[in-house]
Design brief:
Blueprint (H helix, E strand, L loop, with lengths): L1 E7 L4 E8 L1 H15 L15 H8 L5 H20 L8 E8 L3 E9 L13 E6 L4 H14 L2 E4 L9 E10 L2 E14 L9 H5 L7 E7 L13 E15 L5 H7 L5 H34 L7 H21 L4 H7 L4 H29 L5 H15 L3 H7 L2 H20 L1 E6 H10 L1
Parallel strand pairs: 5-11
Antiparallel strand pairs: 1-2, 2-4, 3-4, 6-10, 7-8, 7-10, 9-10
Helix pairs in contact: 1-3, 4-7, 6-7, 7-10, 8-10, 10-13, 11-12
């Protein structure tokens, strides 16, 4: 392979001219013949048994040239990319300029490459880090939720109240006629939850088990079933049971039942610690975002459209995967949301552009500061992945692309470098809120 031309075009496009010598091209054509000979019909021969020279006489001497180019292209293209010192970010467009067995082949390839990035200031930046402190009341709120989850539901006598669970039969009528979807039996309705249309639950309150009564409501004007929107409706109700939640006592026994801790105080302390650790991470991330935002505000780069589209593709695939985990297909989701794929993708675009800019900026810092991920960093990442997915470390090493992982680790080190060189002022969130209130 000989790289005859390496020319920069507009919009981060590069044109390469690649020469393949006669020996390599002839070998590729011979291999193409072996693979494709059975596709050709030659009188007197079974498919795949005709000599090459007869096929070339019937279909042209260059009949296997394009297949030969396809055969050899991946190898010569990879060599040309290394020789040109470029980093493609999209599939190449290739054109066969000339080809014959005596002189070899010449290819013209155009491809989009990673754009050139010029950074402004990225060292010695100034930022304010807001530090949040987790209060004991936040632990109390979480324990209250745990208490609700562990509540016992019991049937009680007397009139239904907000917060009770009413077990009802119901059937709805509009203009004296029952409507589709307006009937249910032994339905457990938590009163005050807002699960049913406005006015419904309030009219169940005050009734006792065994009663039969009517509930009169008006469907909202913007109700999803257009044939019911704005209509007056009557629901025939039969109240079977009134249930209430009996909450467990918040004591040490409760802590033992719902956690690994022996006392309620120890449980609260563990929740505060966990929440504080998470809050600290969020505060640190907010600081990192502030610093990186300053860097991308001062960077100069023309981002190729394909980079943004590729990132949008990744985000759509991630969203689709999460939907499938919930048993829903993306096309069904789009139908429910009354949204086209084009509009759906557009919703990711701004975020995708930001992420591409951030990545380019940090990779430029890696380049300028000659930051590398050490083998110890890579080993630690392999261990982390193995523990997260419960896999053997050697299996992880055989699967993950080491070069890409090391590049990601270097980018993370770039963030650490930016923070270490920055001038960071710390302020407490409570003090900040108090100052804003004064203003």
């Amino acid at each position: 392979m000989e790289l005859k031309k390496n020319e920069k075009l507009e919009n981060s496009r590069v044109e390469l001219e690649i020469a393949v010598d006669a020996a390599a091209f002839s070998a590729a054509v011979a291999k193409a013949f072996q693979k494709n000979a059975k596709k050709f019909n030659v009188p007197g021969f079974r498919k795949g048994k005709a000599p090459r020279h007869l096929i070339e006489q019937m279909y042209g001497k260059d009949v296997f040239y394009y297949d030969g180019v396809n055969e050899i292209f991946p190898e010569v293209y990879e060599e040309a990319v290394k020789a040109a010192g470029i980093e493609p970010i999209d599939r190449p467009d290739a054109e066969l300029v000339s080809a014959d067995l005596d002189n070899g082949a010449v290819l013209k390839v155009t491809v989009t490459v990673k754009p050139e990035v010029t950074l402004g200031e990225y060292k010695g930046l100034k930022a304010v880090k807001t530090v949040h402190t987790v209060e004991a009341s936040e632990a109390d709120a979480e324990i209250a939720q745990m208490q609700q989850r562990n509540a016992r539901t019991i049937t009680r006598e007397g009139k239904a109240e907000n917060g009770d669970i009413a077990v009802i039969d119901f059937e709805g009528f509009v203009d004296g006629k029952a409507f589709e979807g307006g009937k249910g039996e032994n339905f457990s309705l938590t009163l005050g939850s807002g699960q049913f249309i406005p006015g419904f639950e309030e009219q169940v309150v005050g009734h006792e088990a065994g009663e039969e009564f009517d509930v009169n409501v008006k469907f909202p004007e913007e109700y999803q079933a257009k044939e019911l929107a704005g209509k007056d409706a009557t629901f025939k109700i039969k109240l079977h049971e009134v249930k209430t939640k009996e909450l467990p006592a918040l004591d040490d026994e409760f802590a033992k039942d719902v956690s690994e801790y022996d006392t309620l105080d120890a449980l609260k302390a563990s929740i505060v610690k966990r929440k504080q650790e998470q809050t600290d991470k969020e505060d640190e991330l907010e600081l990192e975002n502030s610093l990186v935002d300053q860097i991308i505000a001062g960077m100069k780069v023309e981002i190729p459209e394909v980079m943004v589209n590729n990132r949008v593709d990744e985000m759509v695939r991630d969203f689709e995967y999460r939907l499938e985990q919930q048993g829903l297909k993306l096309d069904m989701y789009l139908q429910y949301a009354n949204m086209t794929m084009e509009k759906f993708r557009e919703g990711f675009r701004e975020q995708a552009e930001k992420q591409v800019k951030v990545r380019l900026a940090l990779e430029k810092v890696v380049e300028l500061e000659k930051i590398e991920a050490a083998e110890a960093d890579f080993d630690a990442e392999v261990k982390r992945i193995a523990e997260a997915y419960k896999m053997e470390e050697e299996k992880v090493r055989s699967i993950i692309p080491a070069a890409e992982v090391k590049k990601d680790l270097a980018v993370n080190k770039a963030i650490d470098f930016i923070k270490s060189s920055a001038s960071v002022t710390t302020e407490k969130a409570a003090d900040k809120a108090a100052d804003e209130k004064k203003d």
